[in-house]
Amino acid sequence: MKRPAKYYSGLSGWQQYSLFIIGGVILGIVVFLIRISNAASYALDAPETCINCHVMNDAYASWQRGSHGQAAVCNDCHVPQSNFAAKYAFKAKDGMKHSYVFTLRKEPQVLKLSSGAVGVIQENCLVCHNNQFAMIRLADVSERTCWECHTNIHSRVHSLSASGDALRPRLNDAGLDWMKKGFENE
Amino acid sequence: ATSIMERRWEAQRPAVVLKPIAEWEPNNAVWGQNYPREYERYLKTQITDTQTRYGGSFPRDYLKEDPRKVILFAGSAFSLDYLQARGHYHALTDVLKTKRIKYPYNAGTCMACKSTDVPRLMSRMGIAEFYAANFHDLKKEINNPIGCQDCHDPQTMSLRITRPALKEAFAVMGRDINQATHQEMRTLVCAQCHVEYYFKPEPANYLVFPWKKGLSVEDMIAYYDEYNFTDYIHTISGSQIVKAQHPDYELYMTGIHAYQNISCADCHMPYRTEGGLKFTDHHIQSPLLNISNSCAVCHRWSEQELLRRVEAIQDKVQKAMLQAEEALVKAHFDIAAAKKAGLTDEELAKSRQLVRHAQFYWDYVSASNGMGFHSPQESTRILGESLNRAQEARLLAARLLAKKGITDEPQYPDLGTVQKALDIIESYK
Amino acid sequence: ATSIMERRWEAQRPAVVLKPIAEWEPNNAVWGQNYPREYERYLKTQITDTQTRYGGSFPRDYLKEDPRKVILFAGSAFSLDYLQARGHYHALTDVLKTKRIKYPYNAGTCMACKSTDVPRLMSRMGIAEFYAANFHDLKKEINNPIGCQDCHDPQTMSLRITRPALKEAFAVMGRDINQATHQEMRTLVCAQCHVEYYFKPEPANYLVFPWKKGLSVEDMIAYYDEYNFTDYIHTISGSQIVKAQHPDYELYMTGIHAYQNISCADCHMPYRTEGGLKFTDHHIQSPLLNISNSCAVCHRWSEQELLRRVEAIQDKVQKAMLQAEEALVKAHFDIAAAKKAGLTDEELAKSRQLVRHAQFYWDYVSASNGMGFHSPQESTRILGESLNRAQEARLLAARLLAKKGITDEPQYPDLGTVQKALDIIESYK
Ligand SMILES: [Ca+2]
Ligand SMILES: [Ca+2]
Predict the structure, then answer these.
(1) Which residues of C touch B (CB under 8 A)?
(2) How far, in Å, CA of C13 to CA of C3, rounded?
(3) pLDDT given for residue A183 in this prediction
């Protein structure tokens, strides 16, 4: 009945490191692209990084107004915190998938966590909230997630269209100045 | 990455209006020039080959699926032609070809919910005059099916009520429809048509929603009793029947989604985002044909789980409906047997009144679209009330028959096909 | 990762345990020394003055509230003493003082769900021997009401099944209860007791849950029919009645919460935080007395909104229940009248069978706690089925009476008070 909530067991060490390297290489080589897509910010933890893609707007808005807007940033929950390599390997894999899907406009209207993501987040809830007796017991359980009860982490409603654009902060301009001028002239 | 950048601009692109739309513009294609996304999706309501367990856009034949309905509507044109609704695009075609339309005169009121030409004509002719007009005269001026004009203000594109019956019904309940919130409007535009209605005799064929006492089935039948309103005399039992017609809004209002302020549009017109632009999906249809956009926005279950749940709810409603129907059909025949045995109309009055009520309760659910999904518990509750009245009517009839020495159960005819059912009705005329 | 978590739990647990607990320790206070928070909350189940519209911990008198129930249970001790459940702390007291216990012998089975001493005694005596023993002998060894031992393993504190009847019922259905997930266990510990049961005659008074064909009301009555099981012969109508007893788990299983994997404990034992420590609230009671922890974490509506919705659901169930009850009471009297008029048991068999079923359907909802909230639509559906059978029985009876020349409705007695109802029963003995 429930979505399978297997713990994110991590990629094998070999996969982690190669993904990390591939990700790094790609980012390293395509400097031009990095500049225009604000790619440098992807290595950091600022939530604004994520809304480089408007597809993430709703998640951003609901996070900001949810119970953790002041308490945790996206990567505190969405990226494994267990060790440095795992963290960046996950980021690289995720990042590549997202850019691929986004660029090809294949994103679904209603996003759902991938099965790998569920375990990662559940673990992360415990990173911060681990000092409470009953929760440790809950964490033993792979079939139930914290947010089945705590539905206000993002919000009840999940959809690319769920939050108005107004809730999205203005980003730094993307692209190069001359490009912008070019468009303005049209 | 270039495309990532481009797509970021998408999010900031303003909508541009190309061409002002005339106040009473009935032509959807004209509106469509300005709003191509909405129009393109609207055009999809042409599709008529989708099917779900109880819905979908194909023209399901209610009578063929369940010939007992022919018996229940004996005395009304619904026993001749009764299909399930399909897409808005077909509304005009369908009202023009249904056998329920009478010749040479039929009330203009039958056009009230079928075309974007209606607001224009009403504003020109006057409301009462429109209803009183002959349907066959109006036809000449009516060319467009349901569309933009029915729900939108052409200047601002905001939602607006174009049908006076809804405004008037609100006023009668002491409410001002202009105070409706934006979220309520996302339901009320539908409630212009997806509601129970009747034609008041005075002014002639005036369209009225029977909400004066309230929206519940109890309130409505009490209203009809007070006004002594009847749609038809039942050919077999002689009961005075009120046909319920799609009380979708009313039944929905008793459900959990209405309680939580979820509108018709939330499910039947979910938002879509294409290229960073957010718009409303104007392909109005069964949400079960679009679960991932429609329900999954709020319910993080799998599509399979959602579908299974809806069907389980609907199966229960159908079972309860058929149970009430069975008793109701028999009640008509029981009363007919009593009549034949020589019992007077006076003696039969109480059973007939019970059957009138039983059938209205049954029809409140049966004529509602969605097989009870809009309010699962209320649907089965109402069907229980219907059943009780039908069975009470049968008990009275049995005791009356006994008074005439008839102690056996009447023989109930075979109702296997529509034709058989029609023949039976004929034999009672 | 799972194992990391397990280790974390293992690491933390011993720090809390002050004193090991013996395998069959029945004394809740002893467990309480190690787990004072849970124990303190558990002690709150002593409270007996809370009240909601249909529940709460005060000992609501079902018979006084609705004396027609006295008639329905004519022939069984439930017509003498029938209260609504109150807190677990009182389970032992209440079974000791109820008038439903017989002297000098009563089946030991009546103790099975009332005390933490039961697992110990069963392991010592043997299961069949426990059930077969005399209740009045067992009393001497039983001193503790429902508590920790009933749901927990004293070593690990994990949930465990201590009652064989549930294990056996799972086995009969081809399921292994040891495969239950943690979340399922949060329901199954309750399903040890909050279920429909009967005493199998062989081995003597053996406790069985009638789930072989399934958990639905249809499946259960089919089961009882197959085994020809009857709790009592109805004093008035002579029907063979099966009394349903608290099918809480079974009804819940058809509801939306079970479908979404929400357990009994989620609502009746919500988490509570005290001093930064989150633990399970062991004050088991009506969740309506603690809406903010119980419902509002998942449903972010106001407490008022939640309460209003629950009550609206319950009101509808009650209305449907009373409607079915009315028909059922009359059915008993109708059959009695037919009997009196000289109809044979053979002629009455069909009506009695219908009444047997009608009453079991009715009781499946009536005897369930929570006035149908656990499964709103299924409750009203079942009550419709009950009603139909009761009315069909009345129709048959009316036609039989007619055969004897009696065409009037029987006179139904005044059932205004419990005493009046008891007197009526007396007159039929
Ligand atoms: Ca349809
Ligand atoms: Ca209680």
Answers:
(1) 256, 259-260, 301, 305, 309, 313, 316, 319-320, 323-324, 327, 376-381, 383-385, 387-388, 391-392, 394-395, 398-399, 401-403, 407-409
(2) 15
(3) 39
Say which DSSP state C34 is in: H
Confidence of residue C420 (pLDDT cuts 50, 70, 90): very high
CB atoms within 10 A of CB A4: 9
- Asked if C380 lies within 8 A of B385 by C-beta distance, the reply is no
Helix extents (H) in A45-154: 47-50, 57-65, 74-78, 84-103, 115-128, 133-139
Beta strands in C28-150 (DSSP E): none
Residue C186 has pLDDT above 90, yes or no: yes
Q: What is the pLDDT of residue A171?
A: 56
CA-wise closest residue to B252 among B85, B368, B384, B381: B368
Burial of B422 (0-12, 13-18, 19+ CB in 10 A): middle
Q: How far apart are CA C234 and CA C215, in angstroms?
A: 25
Q: Which residues pair with C312 in a beta bridge?
A: none
pLDDT in tens, C285-297: 999 999 999 999 9
Q: Is residue A39's pLDDT more than 60?
A: no
> What's the rounded mean pLDDT across residues C388-407?
97
Q: Which residues of C touch B260 (CB under 8 A)?
A: 301
Nearest to B395 by CA among C397, C239, C348: C397
Return the CA Rg of chain A: 18
Minimal Cβ distance to C388: which of B323, B377, B379: B323
Indicate the range of A36-45, C169-178, C204-213, C386-395 predicted with least confidence.
A36-45
CB pairs under 8 A between A and B: 74
Mark yes or no for CB contact B7/A112 under 8 Å. Answer: no
Q: How far is the CA of C52 from the centre of ligand 2 (A)?
A: 9
B213's tokens: 């006492």
Distance C291 CA to ligand 2 centre (A): 16
pLDDT at residue A61 in the model? 86
Query: What is the distance between the alpha carbons of residues C303 and C315, in angstroms, rounded to a whole number?
Result: 18
Higher pLDDT, B33 or A158: B33
Residue A7 pLDDT:
36
Instruction: Tell me the chain A residues in contact with residue C278 when contact means C-beta distances shorter than 8 Å.
Output: 132-135
| CA–centroid distance for C13 within its chain | 34
**Nearest neighbour of B293 by CB, restricted to A52, A110, A174:** A110
- When CB atoms are compared, the residue of A112, A165, A174 closest to B8 is A174
How far away is chain C from the Cα of A48, in angstroms, using its nearest Cα?
A: 28
Helix C345-366 to helix C376-403 angle (10° resolution) is 160
**pLDDT tens per residue, range B117-155:** 999 999 999 999 999 999 999 999 999 999 999 999 999
ipTM of the complex: 0.90
Residue B68, classified by CB atoms within 10 Å of its CB into exposed (0-12), middle (13-18) or buried (19+), is middle
Task: Give the SS3 label for residue B419.
Answer: helix
Provide the terminal-to-terminal Cα distance of chain A, rounded to the nearest Å.
54
Q: Mean per-residue pLDDT for B402-417?
A: 95
Task: Please check whether residue A67 touches C, CB under 8 A.
Answer: no
Q: Which ligand is nearest to the CA of C371?
A: 2
Indicate the DSSP class of residue C54: S
Determine, for residues A140 and C2 on separate chains, whether the beta-carbon distance falls below 8 Å: yes
| pLDDT at site A12 | 56
- Can you give the pLDDT at residue A167? 54
Cα–Cα dist B254/C425, whole Å: 41
CB contact at 8 A, B336 and B237: yes
How many whole angstroms separate alpha carbon C265 and alpha carbon C293? Answer: 12
